[in-house]
Amino acid sequence: MNSLSQRILLFFSVWILVIAMPWWISVFVLLGLTLYYPFYIEVIFFGFFYDALYATGNFRYFGLLSTFILLSIVSIVRSKIRT
């Protein structure tokens, strides 16, 4: 299985995971995928999707903001480690 088909399969698997599982399981899986893949940009989509499904209250974009911060931190740390 090549990398593209593997990422597509993971995308749909995580999409079902975000819908069906508790939030903390989704967070650990997305954190693991962000650490495993070099630039797992799909995590931002899942943050937006999580907000669209479950967000309530005053700040409706907590999932999107937290996934963006997670991806930024992992990218910065990864670049510092490799240089």
SSE layout:
Layout: H1 3-20, H2 23-36, H3 42-54, H4 62-82
Helix pairs in contact: 1-3, 3-4
Task: List the keywords.
mainly alpha, 4 helices, single chain, 83 residues
| Helix and strand composition category | mainly alpha
Mean pLDDT: 87
Give start-end ranges of low-pLDDT stretches. Answer: none
The helix/strand series, from N terminus to C terminus, equals: HHHH
Report the biggest beta sheet as strand number plus sense, adding barrel if it closes: none
The number of helical elements comes to: 4
Number of strands: 0
Calculate the terminal CA-CA distance, rounded to whole Å. Answer: 30 Å
Which term fits the overall shape? Answer: globular
Q: What portion of the residues fall into strands of 2 or more residues?
A: under 5%
Radius of gyration: 13 Å
The tally of domains stands at 1
Question: What helical percentage do the residues reach?
Answer: over 70%
Question: What is this entry, summarized?
Answer:
The chain is mainly α. It has one domain. The chain has 4 helices and no strands.
Molecular structure report:
The model has no long low-confidence stretch (mean pLDDT 87). The protein has four helices and no strands. It is 80% helix and 0% strand. It has helices at 3-20, 23-36, 42-54, 62-82. Helix 3 runs antiparallel to helix 4. The chain has one domain (3-82). The longest helix is centred in the C-terminal third of the chain and has 21 residues, at 62-82. It is globular.
